[in-house]
Amino acid sequence: MIQIGRTYDLQVVKDTEFGFYLDAENLGEILLPAKHAPDGLSVDDTVEVFLYLDSEDRPIATFQTPKAEVGEFAYLEVKDNTHIGAFLDWGLDKDVLVPFAEQHRPMTVGDSYIVYLYLDNQDRIAATSKIDKVVLEDDEHDFYPQQKVDLIIANSTELGFKAIVNHSHWGLLYKADVDQRLSFGQSIQGYIKQVREDGRIDLSLKSGQEIRDNYSQVIQDYLRDHNGFAPVHDKSPPAQVSNLLGMSKGQFKKAIGALYKQRIITIEKEGIRLV
């Protein structure tokens, strides 16, 4: 079923002086205004358009791309404050409304906020900054380790950064796993590091292979700087490995296992040696 607030491929069924009508199935024929239509468009062509309501609440199509669709989050700037709420720039000619009742705190013109787009009870597109009631904490999901996901940085904690994962769930980026500057509202790609027993999600900005490659490089750099030898091996105490190389025992074992298979190092009784 076709819904307002989403992007679809629709067929042109009628050409008029003020635009083209598209077959939107259950929504009927929807106008694509001439100002938004590309040159050469004709009946029977199929076009990818976004559907929303115009200023008179009539369904309308556009080639403009919104910064978020219904059911998604975005970091948007407030363009105006009125007696009904704040209007945010979301990439279309018509700004999106955040009613006063949906503002986590009063919004200020010029400031930006993370909001969630939804359809109100009259099927008009609106937004809310009360994202905690929308993002799921540990509800059922099908995320799995090393899955690539879309993240929106939403908050910082003592442990790291809270992020919205694929527009649906909360995840956590630990400080130790972040080696770049992150800003509130930033959209970035990441990976599922692990799903804990309680369903909560730990995140990483690097894939498992990238992480292993980094640890492998750290080990090789240490060996080159210390005459090709490091006094640690797969039987060394975790604290010794951590103090010497700044990684966990598990990370170290995986890295030297790969280096050994590639015949880059040998593993000796007293430590590891560069070949």
Automatic annotation (TrEMBL):
Domain S1 motif: start-end pairs: 3-66, 69-130, 144-206
One of its Pfam families is: S1_2
The family assignment reads:
Belongs to the CvfB family.
UniProt lineage? Bacteria, Pseudomonadati, Planctomycetota, Planctomycetia, Pirellulales
MF terms (GO), sorted A to Z = nucleic acid binding
Annotated protein name in UniProt: S1 motif domain-containing protein
Biological source species: Novipirellula galeiformis
Superkingdom classification of source: Bacteria
